[in-house]
Amino acid sequence: MAALGDCSEHKHCASPGQPRGSAPVSSWEEGRELAGGDGRVCSQLCACCWNGARGPRLPAAPDFAVDRLSGLAGSQLRGGVRGGGGQWAGCPGNAESDPAQGLSRADWEAGAFRGARGRGRPPVRTAPGGGAAGPHASSRSSRRGGSVVPRLRSALAMKPTFSLRLRIFNLNCWAIPYLSKHRGDRMKRLGDFLNMESFDLALLEEVWSEQDFQYLRQKLLPTYPAAHYFSSGVIGSGLCVFSKHPIQEFTQHVYTLNGYPYMIHHGDWFCGKAVGLLVLHLSGLVLNVYVTHLHAEYNRQKDIYLTHRVAQAWELAQFIHHTSKKADVVLLCGDLNLHPKDLGCRLLKEWTGLHDAYLETQDFKGSEEGCTMLPENCYVNQRELEPFPFGIRIDYVLYKAVSGFYISCKTLRTTTGRDPHSGTPLSDHEALMATLCVRHIPPQHTPSPTHGLAERSRLVSILKEAWIELDLGVAQARWWTTFAGYVIGLGLLLLALLCALAAGGGVREVAILLWTPSVGLLLGAGAVYIFHMQEAKGLSGARAELQHVLGRAREAQDLGLESQPALLLGQQEGDGTEEQ
Amino acid sequence: MAALGDCSEHKHCASPGQPRGSAPVSSWEEGRELAGGDGRVCSQLCACCWNGARGPRLPAAPDFAVDRLSGLAGSQLRGGVRGGGGQWAGCPGNAESDPAQGLSRADWEAGAFRGARGRGRPPVRTAPGGGAAGPHASSRSSRRGGSVVPRLRSALAMKPTFSLRLRIFNLNCWAIPYLSKHRGDRMKRLGDFLNMESFDLALLEEVWSEQDFQYLRQKLLPTYPAAHYFSSGVIGSGLCVFSKHPIQEFTQHVYTLNGYPYMIHHGDWFCGKAVGLLVLHLSGLVLNVYVTHLHAEYNRQKDIYLTHRVAQAWELAQFIHHTSKKADVVLLCGDLNLHPKDLGCRLLKEWTGLHDAYLETQDFKGSEEGCTMLPENCYVNQRELEPFPFGIRIDYVLYKAVSGFYISCKTLRTTTGRDPHSGTPLSDHEALMATLCVRHIPPQHTPSPTHGLAERSRLVSILKEAWIELDLGVAQARWWTTFAGYVIGLGLLLLALLCALAAGGGVREVAILLWTPSVGLLLGAGAVYIFHMQEAKGLSGARAELQHVLGRAREAQDLGLESQPALLLGQQEGDGTEEQ
């Protein structure tokens, strides 16, 4: 396995000892020359080399040149607030704050991706704007407390040339103590990679051990001063976040339903699966970031957790809907354990209005079909992926902008199941790396009324489908409670019989021997009764919410307000999303 | 026990057969004459007679006359939108929509309250406004779907003469199937009372049986067309709501921590205590209504659930904080199981900025000190109330207005532990009946900076206190997990020993006999381990949130921003409340 440390072998990474932020790259040509010009192999796990061993390098695509030409810090403010002059060119990169990152991104572009799928669309060059802001301009301003930044909104974010760029990293880390292979090594390499790439936000799932989080926290402290681990369940939610920018607020919502405690071998119940919310103030914008991990799907053909996952997706959608009413940008990352066409995924997207980075991005590079669990990954259970030769896509970056803003996914990258050096990837899932750009909506933008009609019909149909699924779930949960009730009755009868036999002699020893299993049966049935009753109540709650929404949709239809589905179906003024 | 039906004995209630809304009362004098003039005793449970048996009637207070003079529907729009002319006099009553209600309210005023405490302040007569709106003006407009009403805000709610009146009812119903005395009768009388009073919103707790909810739903349907029961836990959250106005949206949040399942005799764990959220659109305003019920306090001297209740109060405060960012009016009702000076109550009020109706009202009538559990109540366990001769105040109506609005509690009434006729009250708790009035903030209103400093210091001190409480809770939960771990080890050893003894003969029978308790011990210890580990994680999550808030307060202090505590401590622009 390759040793990890400062990159000294490859010219495209910052020179050893050279401080971050000291080597701005001034042109795409220079970047290309540095990226692949020396022909040497990097021993680091920077994104540039992730798939370097897979094939010949390609020339860097011109759309990355646009990014690198600007040489600015990520998620920084544009609009002449802290500087003047300069040409605005889309959402600029943050090469100035971390040159290695800018270079490695270019090399990503230049590198070969085994099975990579590109959907390059040139970025839209919009109106020229103000000058470049200094690195961390936004973080400096947002550090001044909770409401200072929103107060600046009128002055900063309201400028017509406003632009904010965000680089996001998401990975399900598969870090189960004692069970996950090469956990320590993978955590170390993940830390090195995140430090080198210097994303705005790194959102991680399945960091089950708080020791692993503390290790990463220490390691990432210089690059990501803010971090948080979401504690819940018996083991912990596994969710954590590292941020380059200060976190203004955070909270969490633990899902009401999350499997059954008696399914110990699956273990999801013990994790206390949840959604974590972070509120960030960047350049005068309020950014609500959600990170989550839904219940796993263990058997797609006979999925006993389908209803729970649909209920979780609805709970997640409702949590986002109710907590993001004043946010300008909403971002959801995580392992949803849902395929793109699964009911839960469609429900979540339609109800919240979130857009899928993979489907919307101008420029995608990575695994075939954007899959995040690949057969090529040595940690993946190959048998589980047999029906899916390309793998499955269950990890997502979803986003929307509200209140007059527009968000687009400029680039999306995934890892592709292998590390060129050690041969072992960072996890059994693939990482997602998205570059998002927030701008003002062009004044001429008006949503199409026909789109509204189609949207409404799709939403209503999905809501109905979810209602039916939850209704079936309620019926099944009730069946289990009835069954458990009968077993409790039988168990009590058996226990009474055994007591009588033990008192009467004869088969006394056998009777006493059978006490333990009969008491166990009684307790087990009691537990099953309790858990399924809880399940029935939880599902009923979610079903009632869906029913209410459907009822309102019907009311709206009666009133002939078909053209505004999102508005009619619970989303408030300003909560509607724009066409991406 | 008196029979319940249409009030035919007492002139102050609408005549039998007379439809609701058909008998507007035009003056206070008339009301007074009707209220007590005939000297007969009403057999109904209208508010007027609630305490009628307690003493001689007093003349109706003039401030109620102001209400009744206007003769308008509750929570209706003022400002000339649907009518013209007429004098505006504070927030008008809804006598026109339900004359019986106007009368009974006046009679409440006129009736004698045993131990009643009055803090009458005359209502502020502000600028004259537009004419009277028709009954249900607001509900008619808000029925037109989710976003129609907010869109009207600029036209309606933005008028300087805008005024909205809300009549709220809250009661912990103590309706435990098979356990609560006279449950059926009390439910029936509650339904009659709610129908007669025609509140805008009736929020109920401890309606544990969904059958009871369905019974009330049927009974209240003509007066309260919208209703919802919040399902959760094994038994149900017990929370439900009846509304005269359409409910736009609802959702719920189940508390992460809620006692222990092995404390079966207390039973709170099985209830799945939660907070329910309703979003209503009234007269162009967005109204977020929360109803909740926190873990009970069984022993104040040795309260093993104190930490859970503090964690629940924090979770509730955070839920309100994050979900009400776009609401104009926030209302929280429920049984908090917290005394006014308890840490949880102070934490909730300070963090959310909610105001206590009892402390803020212009006019209070009811129990001494506003208590909601009284020794006079025949259902109350007298031993529990021994240290509190006047009773305890644990049920609340809390509110705030944001975005340039001002909310005040015009009147607050409580029942006082007895029904004059049957002698049995509606519940072991007392009902709260509040009349709230929403108006625009006067333009000259500016918060005092010195108040800001004091507020900040109080908030920080409460947050620290809560942090310490949760920290102690985490330590105790960890102690229990360690203890349970040792017991599991011992249980395993014991089981192995018993197996060896059983195999060796001699005391075989005894060994087999001991199997059951040792397996039980093992399972029990395992359950204790799991529940306390879950507790530790849950408390750690809440403690981390508090720590973050305190850290931000410190940062703010360093930056010398002491004068804006609410803004610095996580509350966003426009989320600050006004002086009530």
Automatic annotation (TrEMBL), chains A, B:
The Endonuclease/exonuclease/phosphatase domain, residue ranges: 172-429
Record's bilayer topology term: Multi-pass membrane protein
Pathway, per record: Lipid metabolism; sphingolipid metabolism; Sphingolipid metabolism
GO CC term, one of those recorded: membrane
Needed co-factor(s): Mg(2+)
Compartment annotation: Membrane
Family: Belongs to the neutral sphingomyelinase family.
Location of the region described as Disordered in the Swiss-Prot/TrEMBL record: 1-34, 114-146, 561-580
PANTHER family assigned: PHOSPHODIESTERASE, PUTATIVE-RELATED, SPHINGOMYELINASE FAMILY MEMBER
Annotated catalysed reactions: 1-hexadecanoyl-sn-glycero-3-phosphocholine + H2O = 1-hexadecanoyl-sn-glycerol + phosphocholine + H(+); a sphingosylphosphocholine + H2O = a sphingoid base + phosphocholine + H(+); 1-O-hexadecyl-sn-glycero-3-phosphocholine + H2O = 1-O-hexadecyl-sn-glycerol + phosphocholine + H(+); 1-O-octadecyl-sn-glycero-3-phosphocholine + H2O = 1-O-octadecyl-sn-glycerol + phosphocholine + H(+)
Enzyme class: hydrolase
UniProt feature, compositional bias: Low complexity: 134-146
Protein name: Sphingomyelin phosphodiesterase 2
The UniProt record lists the keyword Membrane: yes
Organism annotation: Callorhinus ursinus
